[in-house]
Amino acid sequence: MDFLKKHYEKLLLGVVLVGLVVVVMFLLFKVAAEKQQLEDLSTSLTHPRVKLLTNLDLTGPEKAFARLAVPALIDLSTTNRLFNPMAWQQTRETPPRLIRAEKTGPTAATVTNIAPLYLKITLDSVTLVPDGPPKYVIGVQKEAAPTSAQRLKKPAYCKVGDKTDTFKLEAVNGPPDNPTNLVLTLNDSGERVLVSKEQPFRRVDGYIADIRYDPEKLVKTQQRVGANLHFNGEDYKIASIAQTEVILSAPNTKHWTIKANAPP
Question: pLDDT tens for residues 202-219?
Fold first, then answer.
């Protein structure tokens, strides 16, 4: 206690000096930290970190360009009634009635049925000839021929090498008096075909069509290419018949395609 009483001023001064040293050291570190912080702030402002650019999202512009590439379809004929007022036509019924004009004419015709027309070739019989090769009776029927007389089945008496207006008999397979089949070459196509009694040759050469025109309750059956039709006060001709459609033509060379079994 005497020591403290005698030297407490020195001890207090020592504590104060130690405190001052600590404060000085703290200030040195604080100044260095503040200086570093200022340098970092200056560097971040003068040399900022630039982020890499990401791929631009061009979905919106690409969709817009895609829409611009598709032309706008404006129907000013079938649905427009400002520039194309709806026309009506009176029927020939008793009493007459009014129907829309687009429900008349070729567009109102309906193809109810289309059937094929065949070229048929059959081996009908074999005729034995004394001292000579046998002759073969070959029947030819052309259902698509323009006249009814030409559509009848006509027999041809041929031996190997003979040529008709339809085919040429090239060879006989099997016994000559009872052949397995005959080898024919068709004149129009050059195709080689086999014909036997059990298996005749058949090829589609055309079509016939049944046509109905409801506004006049007109029905035309088994119409062929070139047939004339009269309805709606106009003349039309069947320009062609395919497996699924009929094409009508007018004197002004305008054409209409009518799908089979398609409602008007």
Answer: 999 999 999 998 878 889
263 confidence band (pLDDT: 50, 70, 90): very low
Q: Other C-beta atoms within 10 Å of 253: how many?
A: 7
Question: Which residue, 143, 264, 135, is CA-closest to 211?
Answer: 264
d(CA 111, CA 224) in angstroms, rounded, equals 13
What is the percent of the chain with per-residue pLDDT over 90, rounded to a whole number? 45
Q: What's the residue count for the chain?
A: 264
pTM of the model: 0.60
Using CA atoms, how far apart are residues 1 and 230, in angstroms rounded to an integer? Answer: 145
Number of Cβ atoms within 10 Å of the Cβ of 235: 11
pLDDT band at residue 264 under the 50/70/90 scheme: very low
Domain locations in the chain?
101-113+207-259, 116-205
Taking only the tens place, the pLDDT of each residue in 56-89 is: 788 888 888 888 888 877 777 666 666 666 556 6
